[in-house]
Amino acid sequence: MLRRPYTLLVGLLSLYLFFLASCTGEQEEVSPMAESFALGVPANLATSVPYPDRNPLTHEGVALGRMLFYDPVLSKTGTVSCATCHQQEKAFTDGKALTTAGVSGKPLLRHVPSLVNLAWMPGLFWDGGAKDLESLSFGPLTHPDEMGQDLKALAQKLQQHSQYPQLFKKAFGTDSVTSAAITRALAQFQRTLISANSRYDKYVRHETGGDLSELELEGLTLFQEHCSSCHATGFFTDNSYHNNGLDSSFSPDHEALAYGRGRISGTPEDVGKYKTPTLRNIALTAPYMHDGRFQTLEEVLEHYSAGVVYSASLAPELQQQGRLGIPLSPSEKAKLIAFLQTLTDESFIQNSAFSKPQ
């Protein structure tokens, strides 16, 4: 039977955050001064941007969230912002396997994920430990190796700031800065981080600049055959959890972090499963996997071709025709990589609306 102390810990943390949010303004109204923020969505991605009723998008909320995202005042030491590890030019990753940029200087135990198209993701983090964007930021803000912040102290610090109290009032109609309002503002900004304007997207939409070469089109065919069951739809993720054969055993150390989704669900069938990452902007987000173990796309494809190892929860898709993995020739790997590079969205990494406010 799977040992469950970590499940109890996660449950207690979730309850704590629920009551914390309830006590710090979970029922706050949107300010009557706030103006609704309409987001255009490319047709091949979705028809609209979902958001919870308690946190509709407003110009004031998005602007506040953007300001907070880039402000190191959110960390205990005043030296680490969200953008320290989520850099726009790298599709909001940091280019490191396990970053040491947090307040403690210790390496984190998971790779920094890309922040892209998060509005449509029902579970966040590599194990789905955050159910939505409103709860996403509590973990990084308070983790001792990330921003190391006490939420009450942070609210007090922002309350005493020369600009933030008025900005929170405009966005949420509250005279007091609360942790719930902080995470709501961050959620609103991150909901705007939409990427669907790559060369591939223009090809799908039959737009100018959407030409794909013969090599790239052959790569697309291979992708649809071998990869699209998990990297599905226009989001290039099925938003589910899979064991892709990286390891044969999983350590219970560090609160069973290696269990992946099993750490959250508490079921043996989920041990070793991780969230399918989007492949959008994949050429910009190296290194790869939940622990950043692969430096290049070539290494990733070599893993799927010849490096998959067995464990009880290994994805069925990687156990076909009496062998592990996906047989790929050098030529097929080159074609797949050529296609994956068409998913780079230059307008996303250059969009001034996502950059540090001046």
Keywords summarizing the entry:
Cytochrome Bc1 Complex, Chain D, domain 2, 2 domains, two-stranded antiparallel ribbon, about 350 residues, single chain, mainly alpha, globular
Write up this protein.
- This protein is mostly helical and about 350 residues long.
- It has two domains: about 190 residues, Cytochrome Bc1 Complex, Chain D, domain 2 (Orthogonal Bundle), CATH 1.10.760; about 150 residues, Orthogonal Bundle (Cytochrome Bc1 Complex, Chain D, domain 2), CATH 1.10.760.
- The protein is about 35% helix and about 0% strand.
- The chain contains 15 helices and four strands.
- A two-stranded antiparallel ribbon has the order 1-2. A two-stranded antiparallel ribbon has the order 3-4.
- Helix 2 packs across helix 8.
- The N terminus is likely disordered.
Q: In order across it, which strands form the biggest sheet?
A: 1-2
Number of strands: 4
**N-end to C-end Cα span:** 54 Å
Q: Report the helical percentage.
A: 25-40%
In the CATH hierarchy, what is the architecture of the largest domain at level 2? Orthogonal Bundle
CATH class label of the largest domain? Mainly Alpha
Low-confidence stretches: 3-26
Annotated CATH topology of the largest domain? Cytochrome Bc1 Complex, Chain D, domain 2
Protein structure class = mainly alpha
Largest sheet: 2 strands, antiparallel
Going by CATH, what is the homologous superfamily of the largest domain? Cytochrome c-like domain
Q: Given the structure, what is the number of helices?
A: 15
Rg to the nearest angstrom? 21 Å
Globular, elongated, flat, extended or rod-shaped: what is the shape?
Answer: globular
Average pLDDT works out at 93
Integer count of domains = 2
The SSE string, one letter per element, is HHHHHHHHHHEHHEHEEHH
Strand content bin: under 5%
